[in-house]
Predict the structure.
Amino acid sequence: MILAAESCNIIEEIVCAPSNVNDLFVFNPIFFIGEMGISRTHFLIIFAAIIVVAFLFFGLRKRSIIPSRAQSMVESLVTLVREDIAMNVIGRGGEAYVPYLLSIFLFILVGNLFEVTPLINFPITSRMALPLLLSLITYILFLIAGIKKQGKEYFIHLMWPPGLPFALKPLVGLIEFVSTLVVRPASLAIRLFANLVAGHLMLSLLLVSGYFFIYQNGVWPVPGKIPIGLAWYTFGIAIYGFEIVVSVLQAYIFTLLSAVYIQTSLHPEH
Amino acid sequence: MEEAAATIVVKGYALIGYGAAAIGPGIGIGIIVGNAVQAMARQPEAAGMVRTTMFLGIAFTEALALIGFVLFFLV
């Protein structure tokens, strides 16, 4: 975004917009492994996975009854996922899904927190591919859970809840079919993606506009602009704090909704 | 220049549309959180359950606004 703004002629053009939104997000490979170029996003995705594994490994390396600092951190996160999400939402049979829920929770949490990590400042979940992949895994998982539990009945229960009057069957069937099989995975992915993109755009717009009001292409502006720039910058810092909350909350919500979807497959009576 | 101006006008309409689309979810989230706070105040021992359900409701409602946000980029 900074690059796009710097290349534009500020005297002649009114709005410095690039011709295509893709111009804002050019990711050149930073190094190659064979033929495959590894861009910053790829690198950060692997880095996030390594952080999660290292966190769990070093946190639980020396297990003791009186937990060390790292161990109690791991334990509190595991307890959050296990008690608050898996057992509380799924209930009976929720134990089996704790490893999956814990891994997506930690991975999305680290990926989201990259947004507010200094020197990285790029949430990997703001590339549509990653949320889509994660939501498809959840999608397949809850479909398999439903088919395993109920067999073919699952798809019938999915479309028509038992006890539905015959006249309503076509309408309710269509609505339920679309909402379960199409809207669920799409909204799960779009929610995570859009929240992180919105946060990233907001942060970069506010902080960059603070920068440009104060110092523009090597020209110092009229002194009257400096307070405006400082105000934008302050606002950006406030949003920075807000984005930390959003990052954690979105990871929590993704995990919670995954658990809810699995629960609806396992216990259709609710 | 003509084309660029037209693009800006279209983007402006898209922004107005997004603003309109954000009204409903805004009201919805307000109602959800307000009622959740009331429920927690009346029955503090059920706060954990209410909070989980509140986040669920917020997530479902918020999705509408976010779809509008994504559509803005697709225009």
Remarks:
- The first helix of chain B runs from residue 2 to 42.
- Residues 5 and 64 of chain B are 29 Å apart (CA to CA).
